[in-house]
């Protein structure tokens, strides 16, 4: 959430400079509502001041004074209601205004304005037609899309045998890399969360239609970013412990309400998927450096697995609601002859911290400040599994296992079933 004082001075400029980011967010009404609320508060304070003057006079009040006091009581009551309405309308709008992009973010209305930052690895040249994972997986007996539909419905997959083992191996490999070499503390959080946690991280109210909600009012997490960030909601952290780094392996759940017709084949876009998340709480002056570092940690997973990828800066029109800057990591999928997002690494600055009231104190007695929060996928397990199948496939339909993953998987290949 953006500070009200900042919006008061910059709302009109933000709308004019970046309509692709702010138009339709409610920022158009902010100035008028803020003016009305402040005018109401001024009138309310004047009425209260006059009431206090009248009640402070000694002796029995005259009939005229009694009449004025009675009128003031009703006027104050109505003004209090009016101020409450304006404050509520204003707070609703404030929760729907996105974060301000960093100056380095490319300008543009959508993903066509995204900027390529760098790439790593060369796509493998196959001597045979590369197959997509939705053909490779069933032929190997490790992906069962039909039984996923039978058990649950569309956008669900059953992993069998070596497929389930490969998914488990990837999770263990990623967690070990992030905790042993990158300095993250492993966390195993709940996958059910409350609405306060989702509000704090920016999923509510804007993205409610993309969430699964239980009858009891809990939500299934769309990403481990939600519980990891919310662990320190309403806390003041000692400045000397920052940065704090957490990593978690969880199932994630999304209704994909806005993804009708997109990635309907295979495992790319599922209602349930597994992910290793990495997130940080950082000092404001360090957060941009930490953003580069966190992105590098996600990249290292792809490099260790030998998977070609590229890093893309999202434009102002493609940037997520709470992010001030996001790098997307896109892995090469030869079976689909294209790059597909496998991680988004974002710096939210103090946007989430304001919503969740997460602060730090630099020294004893100093005023608390809001921390900066950052997070990324390190990586999405299902999409990494897909990338291994498609990049390491052989002509006979078998799949080689990357060297770094073999100690976790227990074998150097997946063979065709006989």
Describe the structure.
- The model has no long low-confidence stretch (mean pLDDT 96).
- The chain is an alpha+beta fold and 418 residues long.
- A hairpin with a 4-residue loop joins β11 and β12.
- It has an eight-stranded mixed beta sheet. The protein has a three-stranded mixed beta sheet with strand order 7-13-14.
- It has 13 helices and 17 strands.
- It is 40% helix and 20% strand.
- It folds into two domains: 93 residues, Helix Hairpins; 304 residues, BirA Bifunctional Protein, domain 2 (2-Layer Sandwich).
Number of individual domains? 2
Report the structural category. alpha+beta
CATH class of the largest domain: Alpha Beta
Query: Treating each run of at least 4 consecutive H or I residues as one helix, how many helices?
Result: 13
What keywords describe this structure?
Helix Hairpins, 17 strands, alpha+beta, 418 residues, BirA Bifunctional Protein, domain 2, 2 domains, eight-stranded mixed beta sheet, 40% helix
SSE blueprint:
Elements (H helix, E strand, L loop, with lengths): L3 H14 L1 H4 L4 H30 L6 H34 L18 E6 L12 H8 L2 E2 H7 L6 E2 L2 H20 L3 E3 L4 E2 L1 H6 L18 E2 L4 H6 L4 E4 L5 E10 L18 E11 L4 H19 L3 E5 L11 E9 L4 E10 L3 H6 L1 E4 L7 E2 L1 E9 H11 L7 E2 L5 H4 L3 E2 L4
Parallel strand pairs: 4-8, 7-13
Antiparallel strand pairs: 1-10, 2-3, 5-6, 8-9, 9-15, 10-11, 11-12, 12-15, 13-14, 16-17
Helix pairs in contact: 1-3, 3-4, 7-12
């Amino acid at each position: 959430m953006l500070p009200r004082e900042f919006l008061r001075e910059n709302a009109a400029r933000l709308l004019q400079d970046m309509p692709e980011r702010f138009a339709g967010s409610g920022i158009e009404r902010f100035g008028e509502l803020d003016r009305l609320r402040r005018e109401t508060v001024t009138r309310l304070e004047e009425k209260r001041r006059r009431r206090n003057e009248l009640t402070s006079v000694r002796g029995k009040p005259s009939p005229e004074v009694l009449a004025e006091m009675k009128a003031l009581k009703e006027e104050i009551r109505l003004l209090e209601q009016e101020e409450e309405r304006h404050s509520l309308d204003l707070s609703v709008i404030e929760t729907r205004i996105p974060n301000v992009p960093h100056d380095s973010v490319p300008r543009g209305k959508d993903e066509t304005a995204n900027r390529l930052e760098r790439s790593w690895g060369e796509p493998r040249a196959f001597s045979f037609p590369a197959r997509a994972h939705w053909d490779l997986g069933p032929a190997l007996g490790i992906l069962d899309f039909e039984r996923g539909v039978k058990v649950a419905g569309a956008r669900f997959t059953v992993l069998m045998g070596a497929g389930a083992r490969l998914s488990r191996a990837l999770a263990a490999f990623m967690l070990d890399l992030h905790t042993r070499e990158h300095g993250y503390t492993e966390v195993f959080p709940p996958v059910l969360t409350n609405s306060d946690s989702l509000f704090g991280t920016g999923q509510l109210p804007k993205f409610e239609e993309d969430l699964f909600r239980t009858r009891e009012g809990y939500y299934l997490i769309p990403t481990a970013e939600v519980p990891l960030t919310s662990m320190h909601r309403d806390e003041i952290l000692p400045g000397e412990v920052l940065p704090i780094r957490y990593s978690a392996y969880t199932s994630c759940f999304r209704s994909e309400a806005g993804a009708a017709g997109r990635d309907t084949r295979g495992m790319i876009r599922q209602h349930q998927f597994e992910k290793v998340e990495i997130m940080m709480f950082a000092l404001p002056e360090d957060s941009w450096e930490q953003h580069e570092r966190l992105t590098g940690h996600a990249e290292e997973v792809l490099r260790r697995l030998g998977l070609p990828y590229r890093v893309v800066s999202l434009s102002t029109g493609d940037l997520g609601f709470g992010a001030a800057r996001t790098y997307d990591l896109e892995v090469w999928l030869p079976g689909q002859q294209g790059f597909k997002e496998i991680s988004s690494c974002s710096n939210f600055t103090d946007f989430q911290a304001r919503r969740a009231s997460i602060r730090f104190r630099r020294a004893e007695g100093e005023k608390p400040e809001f921390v900066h929060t950052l997070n990324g996928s390190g990586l999405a397990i299902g999409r990494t599994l897909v990338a291994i199948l498609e990049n390491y496939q052989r002509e006979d339909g078998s799949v080689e296992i990357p060297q770094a993953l073999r100690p976790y998987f227990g074998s150097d290949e997946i063979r065709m079933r006989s």
